[in-house]
Write a structure and sequence with these properties.
Elements: H1 4-57, E1 76-81, H2 91-110, E2 116-121, H3 123-129, E3 137-139, H4 152-166, E4 172-182, E5 185-194, H5 202-205, H6 219-292
Parallel strand pairs: 1-2, 1-4, 2-3
Antiparallel strand pairs: 4-5
Helix pairs in contact: 1-6, 4-6
C-alpha cells in the first residue's frame, strides 16, 4: 500500500500533467482557429477560379489540356498528408491504414508490379510510410515541403507534380488527407489531382450563369491558364485543411488526456483521504490506549 507521502507526490504529478495538457489544448485550439481563418480567406480565390472555368464551360467550345490527358497507368504518385508533430492521437495511424488499403486496391486494379511513388507530407507520416518501401513502392520527400508549408512552397510543390505528369514520369497523381469539418469531425478524403477529370469541374459548372462573355485571346488559352490555378487552389486547401485537422485531433487528444487526469486525480484524492483518515484513527486509538494504561 502506498504511503501518504507517495500518494501526495502522485497527486502533484498528475495535477502538473493536467495543467500541461490544458495549456497544450488551448494552444492547439488557437492554431486550429487560425487554420480555419486561412481556409475562409482561400475560398474567394478558389471560387473566382471556379467562376472563370464555369463561364468557359458554358461556351460552345471543346477544351483540351495536357493536364487532362488520360493514358495507360504505368506509374502512380500519391501525396499523403500527416503531421510533423506528435500528441495528436491516432491521426497519423488512421491515415496510414487508409493508405495501405488504397495501395492494395491499386495493385488489384493496375497490377502488382505497377510502380508507386509516395510523397509523405509531415515527419510522422514519413516515418510511418517508410515501412511500405519495397521493389514497387518508392518513398520520396521534397525539401521545404512539410505540414506547415504555405504560399510559395505549395506552388513550387504543385508545379513539380504537374511537370512530372506532363513529362510522362507519372500517369496518375492522387492525394490522401483528413478533410476538416469541425473540431470533433474530420474524415479521410482520397482523390485524384492529375489527370484532371470532368468530375473536377462539376462544382464549377454548378455556378455557371451562362452570361454572354467575349474571351480574349481565346477560351482555350484562358482555360489552359486557369486550370493550373485551380490545381494550386485545390492543393492550398488541402494543406490548410490538413493543418486544421491535425490541430483538431490534438485538441481532442489533449481533452481526453485532461479528462483521464481528472478521473485519476479524483481516485488518488479519495485514496489519500481514506489513508489519511485511517492514519488519524490509528493515532487516536494509540492515544486512547495509552491513557487507559
Amino acid at each position: 500500500m502506498a504511503t501518504l507521502r507517495e500518494l501526495k507526490a502522485r497527486i502533484g504529478s498528475v495535477a502538473s500533467s493536467q495543467k500541461i495538457t490544458g495549456a497544450m489544448k488551448m494552444i492547439s485550439s488557437a492554431k486550429m482557429h487560425k487554420a480555419e481563418q486561412s481556409l475562409r480567406r482561400l475560398q474567394p480565390y478558389r471560387k473566382g477560379i471556379e467562376g472563370i472555368i464555369a463561364n468557359l464551360l458554358g461556351a460552345d467550345t471543346e477544351f483540351t489540356s495536357p493536364l487532362m490527358t488520360q493514358r495507360p497507368v504505368n506509374h502512380i504518385t500519391i501525396v499523403v498528408f500527416g503531421s510533423d508533430d506528435g500528441l495528436c492521437g491516432a491521426y497519423n495511424v488512421n491515415i496510414f491504414k487508409i493508405l495501405a488499403a488504397k495501395l492494395q486496391d491499386m495493385r488489384n486494379t493496375y497490377g502488382a508490379e505497377t510502380p508507386v511513388t509516395i510523397y509523405p507530407v509531415g515527419k510522422k507520416m514519413l516515418k510511418a510510410v517508410s515501412k511500405l518501401k519495397s521493389a514497387t513502392v518508392d518513398v520520396r520527400t521534397r525539401e521545404g515541403v512539410d505540414s506547415k508549408t504555405t504560399g510559395e512552397g505549395v506552388k513550387v510543390f504543385v508545379d513539380y507534380l504537374r511537370e512530372r505528369f506532363e513529362a510522362g514520369e507519372t500517369d496518375k497523381v492522387d492525394f490522401l488527407y483528413m478533410n476538416f469539418k469541425s473540431v470533433s469531425r474530420q474524415r479521410p478524403l482520397f482523390g485524384q489531382l492529375l489527370p484532371v477529370t470532368q468530375e473536377a469541374f462539376e462544382s464549377a459548372g454548378s455556378h455557371n450563369t451562362c452570361k454572354p462573355y467575349i474571351f480574349e485571346p481565346s477560351a482555350t488559352a484562358i482555360f489552359n491558364t486557369a486550370l493550373p490555378m485551380l490545381l494550386l487552389a485545390v492543393m492550398q486547401d488541402i494543406f490548410t485543411e490538413n493543418r486544421a485537422s491535425e490541430q483538431a485531433a490534438r485538441v481532442m487528444a489533449m481533452q481526453s488526456a485532461n479528462d483521464n487526469a481528472t478521473k485519476l486525480l479524483e481516485q488518488l484524492q479519495l485514496e489519500y483521504n481514506k489513508l489519511r483518515q485511517q492514519s488519524i484513527t490509528t493515532e487516536l486509538l494509540d492515544i486512547l490506549g495509552g491513557q487507559i494504561k
